[in-house]
């Protein structure tokens, strides 16, 4: 059987780690704006909105009381036309990201939960998730991809970007 070669992302930003608490949301958004300096401002705004929703979900499904567990944010460009943001929670909530489809109109009017994933689905080119360890509740990794015009990406991007 031939060996499979995994291609390294065209650009990989250093991961950022946050306490799994909603009070960190402004920091998450600010760090994303810093890391994406030079990209189209509309794209940055879109990523901030989608990342805010994913971060809020990660906080919901990680430890809810101090000391908060961590949420890890990853950012990469697997190819020149795609920007991928992903968040990994530390588990403990037992939830699996999904867009509910079995609600009645009245239930949708009342519900506040899981609408963020509808937003992420509509803003992104693709999104998905996987369990960090299928045999245990060690967390969930959720990602979303966004189209980038390669001509509008900053010309000085390096294969690995340090964030601190």
TrEMBL record:
Keywords (alphabetical) are: Kinase, Serine/threonine-protein kinase, Transferase
Instruction: Output the InterPro entries linked to this UniProt entry.
Output: Anti-sigma-factor_SerPK, HATPase_C_sf, HATPase_dom
Transmembrane spans: none
Record-level Gene Ontology MF annotations: protein serine/threonine kinase activity
A Pfam family of the record is HATPase_c_2
Q: Please report the stretch or stretches of sequence annotated as the Histidine kinase/HSP90-like ATPase domain.
A: 21-126
Its protein name is: Anti-sigma regulatory factor (Ser/Thr protein kinase)
Supply the source organism for this entry: Nocardiopsis aegyptia
């Amino acid at each position: 059987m031939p060996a499979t070669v995994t291609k390294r992302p065209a650009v990989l930003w250093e991961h950022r780690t946050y306490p799994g608490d909603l009070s960190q949301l402004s920091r998450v958004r600010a760090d994303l704006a810093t890391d994406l300096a030079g990209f189209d401002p509309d794209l940055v705004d879109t990523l901030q909105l989608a990342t805010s929703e994913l971060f809020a979900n990660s906080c919901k499904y990680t430890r809810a009381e101090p000391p908060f567990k961590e949420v890890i944010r990853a950012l990469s460009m697997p190819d020149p036309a795609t920007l991928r943001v992903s968040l990994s929670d530390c588990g403990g909530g037992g939830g699996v990201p999904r867009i509910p489809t079995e609600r009645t109109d009245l239930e949708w009017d009342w519900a506040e939960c899981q609408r963020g994933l509808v937003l992420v689905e509509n803003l992104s080119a693709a999104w998905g998730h996987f369990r960090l360890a299928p045999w245990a509740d060690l967390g969930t990794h959720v990602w979303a991809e966004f189209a980038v015009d390669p001509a509008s990406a900053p010309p000085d991007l390096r294969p690995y970007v340090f964030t601190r």
